[in-house]
User: Fold these one by one.
Assistant:
Number 1:
Amino acid sequence: MRLELRAKSFGNQPVLGPLTLSVARGQRVALLGPSGIGKSTLLRILAGLDRSFDGRLTAPERLALVFQEPTLLPWRQAEANITLTTGATPARARALMAEVGLAGHEAKFPRQLSLGQQRRLSLARAFATDPGILLMDEPFASLDADTGARMLDLTEALLTRSGAGLVLVTHDPAEAARLGATALRLAGSPAVLG
Amino acid sequence: MSDRPLFLRRSPGLIPGLLSVLALLALWAVAAELAENARRMPSPLAVALRVQALAVSGELWFHAGMTLSRVAAAFGIAMVLGGVLGLWMGRSRAADHWLNPGLVILLNIPALVVIVLCYIWIGLNETAAILAVALNKIPLVTVMLREGARALRPDLDEMARAFRMSPLARLRHVILPQLAPHLAAAARAGISLIWKIVLVVEFLGRSNGVGFKIHLLFSSFDVAGVLAWALAFVAVMLAIDLSILRPWEAGANRWRHDEA
């Protein structure tokens, strides 16, 4: 995956300046910086969700995104949330659910799961696409210390096993270090990679 | 609670509902008694006997069937076209700006005008009848579905795009479940409106159906006959509401409840 960004602005307000970012399979990168600097905007550009920017993006076939919130379909059961969204087989969905500690919860609706469980389901869903690169937007924010640490361990294990690359948006350098990700800092206005 | 029979626990409104219907019947019986004119104000029993006679002769089933098929056709057309238009107008601001004036105009044209114009322009035939009914209903479905489409969750939309869900899968698993309450409301409001308009259409220009029969009975001032046809058809529409629309609505809302 490679992004050559010349500029990104919202209306007349420039947000991101010229920057180049490339991530290969197996490579891990963390985007750090204070709130509002444009980290999430950059991630949305990488995910192909925001196409109104000046620059060029080459993205791999299979990308997966883990959002700040679990973003599950509340009207579909846990297993269907993986299969319907990603096209994974039910067997693969169940195996991934077992891997994130959700065995036995396949038939539950999201609201019957705790927030920690919902986030693990969202992680399992991301890996069900067998992504070349995994994009994560502050996935450990607003979790209590134990749950956050457990999510970090799970993410690390799944990344290592699948060999997927990672772009992690976070404000916490410790998360980047835990996942062995190269820390890149966004700074300035419009923000560039320092 | 637990010693009450199952059907009472499932539908707690059953007893009050039945009692209120009985009270209405009693009120009607008293009114018929006071009116002292069985022709202008027949008793509930007289009307019930007429319904029975119509059912036995088979006339009820034929004409109610004709009316019901028109209701079904107009309902289907209105739900699909109104749904598509509403979804489009709710999702695209440009579509909303262009189509909204036409929608407001259609909403305010009296049903009777649409019916008369359809009969004049298309002819006294089935196409004109069904189109006239559907045209009366489409704007209402559109407005209700537009509200639903405006309230669609943007985060789920982005999730579906990020995971590259196919348009069909997005419609079925992301969009329609969010629209289900609006669809159900539009369907239930729609079906009662549609059958009333179908009767007018039949009254004015068809040679079968409940509306046609009421036209004949109107010319002979046969109130018992008018009531018999109307009540028999109300019963049919209630049965459809209870047996099809409500169970479907309950199924579509199952995920909202905690028990698995």
Number 2:
Amino acid sequence: MTPPHLDHPMALWLLALCLPPLLGWGSGAITVASLRALPRDGISVIVDGGLRVLAALPVLWLTLGLAGPYRPRAQVTRLAGGAHVIVALDRSLSMHEPFALRGRKATESKTQASARLLAAFFARNPHSRFGIVGFSTAPILIMPLTEHRAAIAAAIAAQASGQLGDTDIGSGIAYALAMFGRDDPAAPHVILLITDGAGEIPEQVRLYLAREFHRVHAHLYYLYLRAGDDPPLDDGLVNDTDMTHPAALDAYFRSLHVPYAGFEASDAGAVAAVTARIERIESRPLPYTEDVPRRNYARLCFRLAALFLALHILLLIAERRDMPAGYGA
Amino acid sequence: MNRPGLRPGLRGVALLPILAGLVVPRFMVRRPVHDVLVVLDITASMNTADMVLDGRPIARLAVEKLALRRLLDRMPCGSRLAVAVFVERVPFLLFDPLEICGNYEPLRREISALDWRMGWDSESHIAEALLRSMQMAQHLGTDLVFMTDGQESPPLWWNGLPKFAPLRGSVPGAILGLGGNRLVPIPRFDSQNHQIGYYRSIDVPSDAKGMFAGHGNLTAEDTPHLRQLAALTGLSYRHLGTPDGLWRSVQATGHARRLVTRIDAAPYAAALALGIFVLSFAPLSRPARGRGRDRS
């Protein structure tokens, strides 16, 4: 066991206040004619010493309590399934369109749907670290990769409204990969792309993506917000070079030869499917830290002080102060 | 003579606060914390290094980031911070109000990552972005600090400003102006953040008005415009001269929320008990020798 930490170590100077009781000050002098009149008694000396120490104990424990002893908050590393997930979230103007499954009435925008799906996915992955990159014309770091879940929750909540600019998927993914370039290389890296469509990725960016995906060993999941009449992801008729089509983007991602899967968010189970994929990729458990809260010992000290003080008072009351006949002055 | 009852009595009094402190363990106090939405202008003109910090020139955006970092360090725990960036006419909310101490580490990294390259457009419609920022702060239930150099680009239309009247005075907070008071050129950067010269007059709209008339490619803090916006919105205007200014303006113009915190009474009670107990050892009741002898 490690010695406790102190909030106010300077309070220990108050330990000097143990001296008055230890030196027997104020113990109520008994008026006798002469000390020589009292026989020297070994037992009395020991008892007197014991009483003085007892009188000092309340001071000792009060002082220790005032110094604020505590066991600091500790972080225990545990192992669990989980990954480092960077969400590349489409925040472009097209996300303002209503999102509804085929044949149903839209009750939310694609932006709202994406935030809702992301929140669900976040809730299902309690041991994963998250980071969020928004992209429209340019990538925007919304929250860096962190294990602080409140920070991610606040970031997700802010993504349910507002849209801006064009769609540059390539730059969003490139930004996410750059974040992984500075991350622990041993952690499983996952990029979750959430977008309502597709877009042209310039040749130069494609080369960069191909190189970086393999360098940082990132997995890629493409969550396609397919509403009403949007084209399906598995459209075999599409010309692969037309990257504005989701099926072509899907084909391009396959050609990267990284662990990849594309999902249509219209499938009710898309979030579950991505979660299941992430659970499967964990080749080994990932260490994560759990807080062991700080524990204060001050109240324990005060309880001991009260105990010894009560004992001290009882002994004071029991004290016989009348002197045997003949010794009184 | 000896008064045996005094000392046990006084020490019994010392016992009372300890027990009281242990039995009635916590009392409530209210301390002020802040909930604030900070909106940062990240348009191109904010790259202009026409401010001075520690005797060296520094870019407006860098001062904004330092100020935000200072706010994170200074605000009391329990305060909540939301951050939005704006270009064009839209503030983009990065995250909802977030408690600062428990999330210090990701917030610090987020602030240091803020960059003009996050911008999705090159225009800056200050007044419209301010109006939407007020609506955002109202929706989030926070104070608002809006940091900008005030330079509208393109210049305002003839019909001028959006209608602030319905929102006027509804959001506490401030507009903080950044930038120098002399017209200087706006530096231009490439996507790798290397400076590649300055904006020329052919790069910007030519119908600049007010202090920028005929110099649309130059920049300074548009103080008259910001003062006018402050008057219309009910926000207060201040110049942000140093990074401390943001925290000072949150203190001065913000609406402090009273956070009820529990405070443990036991240490205060224990200190009182210690005082009484130690006092009881003062040689108060030691009878004077002479008197003792006289009485006998």
